[in-house]
Design goal:
Structural class: alpha/beta
Radius of gyration: 17 Å
Number of strands: 5
Largest sheet: 5 strands, parallel
Helix content: 40-55%
Number of helices: 9
Strand content: 5-15%
Order of helices and strands: HEHEHHHEHEHHEH
């Protein structure tokens, strides 16, 4: 990932092709915790001149407490209900770039909303990369109740087959966030044909 689209002469053409392909739809990033949804989503939003929204932050604002507290006080099912309502509201609003929590796309109703009303990008990362990025973090409820590596491995096994239903699949590596942003932009631009129709990518 050594391209530098953001500073190249092709940048405007790449951005224009992405915006034409989106056709006013929100761009949604999905994936496991540590994949870079918020970081890359925010950077891509800046290039597309769209607002960036983190669904987890929106849920915390709506609930008046942290994600960890919601899990502790009300349980995961109540959190998923609130998450679904927040994502539905956001997808019915203005076009944005949206980063979702790792479990959002797993819930069938939420997944259908994302697939029907947006263009989805799965940031696919392997176990070692996710471990590196989540190590020492205490704000992720699912990793606080056991061995994080084992938990992440289980999540990969159960969630990755579902994430594979996303419109676009991007494989993350150890590249810098700037190089990753550029590679994501390039993949997005190549994910729409000359008529602006979405081409499924990844395997």
């Amino acid at each position: 990932m050594d391209s530098n689209i953001a500073e190249s002469g092709l940048h405007e053409d790449v951005i224009a092709k992405i915006r034409d392909g989106l056709k006013g739809r929100t761009l949604v990033f999905i994936g496991l915790m540590g994949a870079g949804k918020s970081c890359i989503g925010r950077m891509v939003a800046k290039e597309l001149k769209l607002d960036f929204v983190d669904a987890d932050r929106e849920i915390e604002e709506a609930a008046g407490c942290s994600i960890a507290d919601i899990f502790k006080l009300y349980g995961e099912e109540a959190f998923r209900d609130g998450e679904e309502r927040v994502i539905a509201r956001l997808l019915d609003g203005e076009q944005i770039v949206l980063a979702t929590g790792g479990g959002a796309f797993i819930r069938e109703r939420t997944r259908q909303l994302i697939l029907e009303k947006s263009v989805s990008v799965w940031l696919r990362a392997d176990l070692d990369l996710l471990m590196h990025r989540t190590s020492g973090r205490t704000h992720r409820p699912l990793l606080n109740n056991g061995d994080p590596r084992h938990i992440l491995a289980d999540l990969i096994e159960t969630r990755y087959p579902v994430y594979a239903g996303a419109d676009i699949i991007f494989d993350c590596d150890e590249s810098s966030k700037e190089a990753t942003r550029d590679a994501v932009l390039e993949l997005l631009a190549n994910s729409f044909d000359d008529d602006g129709q979405l081409i499924k990518t990844g395997t």
